[in-house]
Design brief:
This protein has 170 residues and is of the alpha/beta class. The protein is built from 8 helices and 5 strands, in the order E-H-E-H-H-H-E-H-E-H-H-E-H. It comes from bioreactor metagenome.
Length: 170
């Protein structure tokens, strides 16, 4: 686990990971415990665009990624807060550069088997073709999550995961 020396509570805590890894659930609880604001970038996009993520994806993934990059810039400029990103935010290095300017990046690495059991795949645009797509996404994204994170935490249990994040940022 990499350690940072600066005062983390003046920065955003940015949570990255696969769809269904627990970014929003853990992010909300972490923000509550730290008395910080919480922002889910996907929810921010839905509110701003007045469309669901699947509706935005109907115009293509590239269009969604453009909207997501704008949202990342807007959201990350306000700090400190806890930010849950979309699973594909790591696909554009520009997003990571922006998030890193004012934030610490935490990778929630939830076992893929747990995600496959728990996630409503049909509600996720990039997973609508079934659970095999989930495994393909994991293979294509894992290296990027690992490369861009300041801290990697295996998410098996919410409470344990939050404690590990708190220990890391103190």
């Amino acid at each position: 686990m990499k350690k940072l020396c600066d005062n983390r509570l003046t920065k955003n805590i940015v949570i990255i990971g696969m769809p269904g890894s627990g970014k929003s659930t853990i992010g909300k609880e972490l923000a509550k415990r730290l008395n910080m604001k919480f922002c889910d970038i996907d929810e921010y996009i839905v509110k701003k665009e007045s469309k669901s993520i699947p509706e935005i994806f109907q115009k293509g993934e590239e269009e969604f990624r453009n909207i997501e990059s704008i949202a990342v810039k807007e959201v990350s400029s306000k700090f400190p807060q806890v930010i849950a990103t979309g699973g594909g935010v790591i696909k554009r290095e520009e997003n990571i550069k922006v998030l890193r300017q004012n934030g610490i990046i935490i990778f929630l690495n939830r076992p893929i088997e747990h995600i496959a059991q728990d996630v409503d795949i049909k509600s996720r645009p990039l997973l609508k073709d079934g659970s095999e797509k989930l495994y393909d996404l994991f293979k294509s994204r894992y290296e990027l999550y690992d490369k861009y994170c300041d801290c990697k935490i295996v998410n098996i249990n919410i409470e344990e995961c939050i404690e590990k994040i708190l220990n890391f940022i103190q």
